[in-house]
Amino acid sequence: MVNIKLKCIFKKFRNFTALENISLEIKDKEYFIILGPTGAGKTTLLKLIAGLLKPDSGKIFFDEQDVTKKSPGERNIGFMFENYALFPHMNVVENISYSGRVHARDSQTTKSLVEQVLMMTLLTRRDDAYPDELSGGMKQRVALCRSLLNLEQTKLLILDEPLKALDAGLRMSLRRELLLMAKSKELGLTVIHVTNDEREAMMVADRIAVINEGKLIQVGSPHEIYYHPINLFVANFMSEINYFDGICVKNKKLEWDIHSKSKQGDKFFNEIQEESVPMPIDIGFENTFAGYLKESLYNKIQDNDKVLLVVRTNHMKIRLGNRVSEKRNAILGTILRRKFMGVFYRFEILAKVDHKDKVIIVTRSATYEIHNAFLENSEVTVYFPKELGIIFEHPGDEIIREVLKLE
């Protein structure tokens, strides 16, 4: 059993603040993802948990025991390094078996475990190869196998970008295998897994911690992070978005019922309606738009305050022709570009929003109708369910440009 607590962790390297006031809890047998862009402080945080670095201030606890000053060996964890850290003079089996010798594990047990992880990672035919004979992806798999065999006591597995160098098919397969292994009755691991791939995070995580520039931004389940992002950075990091500047119009007499329940009976919509409240906003059209936000934020934003409406590109719907009068949260535009992306099409729709040209991105499944009817230069109506419109306090144009990397 291992419950991990970090309390007020700070870490600097000379004048650079790598981590600032990080406090979080990782529960026993939890698959916990640390997600963020390159340079956010993810690897530094892992090294602090593993004991490879010491914090400048703050405490780290394993099962209520202060391990802040304990060495990595005293913490008894499996750690997979981002740069693999394989022994060049040992072949694949010897690298993977190393922890068995260190911990004086029974040789037959070690051999059996090695065979299992070699099969899982498709390395059985390269078991006698040396690191300099392996591709980057193979080295990564060997490093993963070695970390899996170093779980003697705490059953804590720490993974730093474990699947980064693998091809797409193997990456998908190993995500599933890692999750099944971690959740198995035989192992029952606590896993801390660093990645900058939001799809990987969503697929395996029980909970996700989003960090950026050394700060903890949001912690929650994949559903919470995706549908209730705390700010524009989190919303944009989890998937491609559209954004619209708007004005809160709480006191306006509305032409439609923004509180009406979804006719689709969608469980996700119902959850959003239970957890949040709708807000009417003016984004520059005759008809009022609406999205959802937490009640505490709803009460904080006053009538006529500037707000930001965010809609994920895959939450936008598209219909041929002018159907603005039939739909809510609807905008008329023209297909500027379309791109086939395999399982979906990505559309760039040129529209007038608040009398200015704006490109709206829509991604839709690649159906027969989408392929044959939704052509470039076609007039279309794009719209979104109010439950999938996310509203924030307006962060200011400078922050929007910085987060969305606009020129």
Instruction: Write the CATH fold name of the largest domain.
Output: Rossmann fold
How many structural domains? 2
Number of helices: 13
| Helix-residue proportion | 25-40%
Radius of gyration: 25 Å
Q: Kindly report the name of the CATH homologous superfamily of the largest domain.
A: P-loop containing nucleotide triphosphate hydrolases
Précis, in short:
The protein contains 13 helices and 20 strands. The chain is α+β, with helices and mostly antiparallel strands.
Your description of this structure?
The protein is α+β, with helices and mostly antiparallel strands. The chain folds into two domains: 4-227, P-loop containing nucleotide triphosphate hydrolases (Rossmann fold, 3-Layer(aba) Sandwich); 241-404, RNA polymerase II/Efflux pump adaptor protein, barrel-sandwich hybrid domain (OB fold (Dihydrolipoamide Acetyltransferase, E2P)), CATH 2.40.50.100. It is 29% helix and 32% strand. It has 13 helices and 20 strands. The chain has helices at residues 42-50, 72-75, 92-102, 107-120, 136-148, 168-183, 198-204, 222-227, 232-238, 267-275, 295-300, 368-373, 397-404, and strands spanning 4-13, 16-26, 31-35, 57-62, 65-66, 78-80, 156-160, 190-195, 207-212, 215-220, 241-248, 277-282, 289-293, 306-312, 317-320, 330-340, 344-353, 356-365, 379-383, 390-393. The chain has a six-stranded mixed sheet with strand order 6-7-8-3-9-10, sandwiched between helices. The chain has a five-stranded antiparallel sheet with strand order 13-12-11-14-20. β7, α6 and β8 (190-195) form a beta-alpha-beta unit. α3 (92-102) packs across α4 (107-120) and α3 packs parallel to α5 (136-148). It is globular and about 75 Å long. The two termini are 49 Å apart. The model has no long low-confidence stretch (mean pLDDT 88).
